[in-house]
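INFO  loader      accepted 1 record
INFO  loader      residues=105
INFO  predictor   begin
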Amino acid sequence: MIFRFNKKAPFRGLNTLGACWLPSPPNIAREKIVSTKLSNVGKCIRIAQEAKEVKTREICAELGICRQQLQRWRRQENLKLHTVQQFAGIFGMTVDEFISLDQRV
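INFO  predictor   done
INFO  writer      dumping tokens
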């Protein structure tokens, strides 16, 4: 079997079986990145809790965690997306609104 390739296609290497050369996929238009600044999720938790006046024990009961775990999360700069989604739901916000809280202050 003979494979013919487009000479303009950049080199991509062998496929997973090492059987043939593959051309690069076509360029896909990418969305503009609005902001490259990272959010401090722990700070967002503190700001949202203060703004919405939600008690620590209420958050812990909702998430099924102990208060020490919540304290650890308040000090962290990043969390898993699933956890951020849960916090946004507790505070009645979208994820975008929640993670932009630290940039407003």
